[in-house]
Amino acid sequence: MAKGKAKGQKGKKITLKIAKNSIRISFDGGRRLDLSKMGITTFPKCILKLADVDELDLSRNMLKKIPSSIEKFQKLRWLDLHSNQLEELPKAIGTLQNLFYLNICNNKLTTKNLPEELNLLRNLRILNLGLNCLDSIPTSLGALKELNEIGLFDNTLTTIPNSVKKLPKLKKLNAKRNPFPDSTEQEEHADSVKRTEMLYLVQDKDLCSSCLKMCQDERVKLNKLKNVTPSPSKKPSFPLLLTPNSTAKDNQEEW
């Protein structure tokens, strides 16, 4: 029994044949090596022979470390490492200059073990650092000028540097469930780059007759909708769902 347990701790051994059979073609024609949910505990060296893939998915495993040899994946555009047990990232990750998507959510990363070389990923569009142990965000991430989305939710952050909040192309910043000093600041960080259109308020007398009639018609329709009594919706049941979703999965899907 003890031997069986020891064997289980080693995780699944990935052979080159298994890896080759795990290559998929992504929607844009790229080659994705999908080794997610395989119970892997150590980075499979054999996949270095497949370093010409465009996407690499090692998510939902039990990896604690990514080796410096990750630099061999120079064509990599998409790297998913979420939901592992990573405590650090190698400096070599900064050499992946074609990377536009990096997901390292739901690991054990600390601010101290985030390599400064992350700021070299100048083509990065999406970065997910949520569900880790980060108490601060390096100001150097402000060098990622192409960044559109960044996830910082569920960490221990008390502030976010202006260099990150004011990135020129940033459209989405999710920093929910961090211990910011007050609720106002937390709300600001949760959607600090939310865009709103201008809203103009005018009196009825300032509208032309056709515009006034159109507004009145819309108001009548709206009132009718408000007066409609909704029918009681039947609560869906899932009798075959035995395992509830984890918090980590919920948050990952929310992102």
Automatic annotation (TrEMBL):
Residues 70-189 form the Disease resistance R13L4/SHOC-2-like LRR domain. The keyword Repeat applies. Residues 227-255 are annotated as: Disordered. Pfam families: LRR_14. InterPro entries: Leu-rich_rpt, Leu-rich_rpt_typical-subtyp, LRR_dom_sf, LRR_domain-containing, LRR_R13L4/SHOC2-like. One of its GO terms (cellular component) is cytoplasm. Residues 229-244 have a biased composition (Low complexity). Keywords: Leucine-rich repeat, Repeat. This is Leucine rich repeat containing 18. It comes from Aquila chrysaetos chrysaetos. The lineage of its organism: Eukaryota, Metazoa, Chordata, Craniata, Vertebrata.
